[in-house]
Design a protein that fits this description.
Immunoglobulin-like; about 40% strand
């Protein structure tokens, strides 16, 4: 008799869940926004940059990369992992609205459309000195100057911001490739 012979049979999860218009598309390839790494902020102990932008038909993905000095700078302090709780990130849309990180929480019951724009971290990983995080922003921004805003008090990074032309994101969204209808959309 094998070790798992008397284990209960797992109940399979449904392959597809209902897709919402505010979710990242699962049936598209993004259009890539042609930018170089853009320094968002820097302190003696850490730096954060936008290292990639990818646009879909309904929103866009932001890649942020954080680096910490191996020697901790002038003062020893927490590494990136222990300091993550104090990192804050948001967007200021061209029309003046603020979009704040929801810290991984789906909006009010995920089946209810958010009342306003959404910004949510959805993936990340790294080492004690380097961390890459991916963020989902919905919907696409209006035309104009889009500001990316961050602060990281535990690593000495005061509020900082950088502005990019939202038109680059909108142009990339036009280049997104729709493969087929979204699974479970309806």
């Amino acid at each position: 008799m094998g070790f798992f012979d008397d284990a209960p049979t797992p109940v399979p999860e449904p392959l597809w869940r209902h897709h919402h218009p505010w979710d990242p598309p699962e049936a598209e390839f993004a259009g890539i926004v042609p930018i170089d790494a853009t320094l968002l902020g820097r302190s003696d102990r850490a730096a954060v940059a936008i290292t990639g932008l990818a646009a879909f038909s309904n929103g866009f993905e932001i890649q942020l990369t954080a680096r910490s000095r191996p020697d901790g700078g002038d003062e020893p302090g927490p590494g990136l992992g222990r300091a993550q709780h104090s990192f804050r990130f948001g967007l200021q849309l061209p029309d003046g609205r603020k979009v704040l990180d929801r810290h991984g929480r789906p909006p009010r019951g995920h089946d209810t459309e958010p009342e306003g724009p959404l910004l949510q971290a959805f993936a990340g990983g790294g080492t004690p000195l380097s961390f890459l995080s991916r963020w989902w922003a919905w919907p696409l921004p209006p035309k104009g100057a889009l500001e990316f805003v961050a602060e990281w008090p535990d690593l000495g990074l005061p509020e900082c911001r950088v502005s990019l032309d939202a038109g680059m994101i909108l142009d990339a969204a036009d280049r997104a490739i729709r493969l087929w209808p979204e699974p479970g959309a309806g």
